[in-house]
Fold this sequence. Notes:
Helices cover 73% and strands 4% of the residues. The protein is mostly helical. A two-stranded parallel ribbon has the order 1-2.
Amino acid sequence: MNFSETNKPLIVNLVKKLLVVVVASAAFTACKNDQSTAPAGNATAPVETEDSLATASDDTTLEASAQANPEIVYINTDSLVSNYQYFVDAKARLETKGQRLERDLRAKADAFQREVGQYQQSAAGLTQEQRASTEERLAQKQQQLGNQQQTASNQLAKDENEEMKKIYEKVEAYLKKLSQERGYKMVLSYTRGNSSILYGDASLDITKDVIAGLNEEYKKSKPAAKK
């Protein structure tokens, strides 16, 4: 199995699909939290006063505030995947491990092939009993190699799932916090060629802010380099 080539696109695609769920979940949770803390409405009709009449003159201010803090924004998933340093580092770790496993298995497979070749060259001079014993041993070794390959593949898949879970939790937590701070009610996910968003004004794109915030949190979480 070619671990490095097989898992590279898999990792990226998994994260893109995952981020769509994370974005929707985080924005929805932040929205629910805002609604739960809002005061209950009063059924009594409001009394018109001088203060209430004055609200008409504030329409322009409210409009400007709404434009400055839109409730619906979006994130470019392609950019997020490419520039979120935690994902870049996790992807590199997984690829390095996959390449190491591939080298180890290839070395064992090559050694096995040499052993098979040596047996084929010497088989004519062996007794039937010796040939049967050697073939049984080689068959067992071939089975062991297959088991090792499956174990390595399963371990790599487990590592991927663990990394995806960490990315999910980090992105979800940050989007919840950002949505509460800025009053976002919905955060959409955009992926070129595979998105329900056909057009979005650039002013609604918060990708750079999200990447910068996530990278800053990741940088703070990393242990300080020893001098």
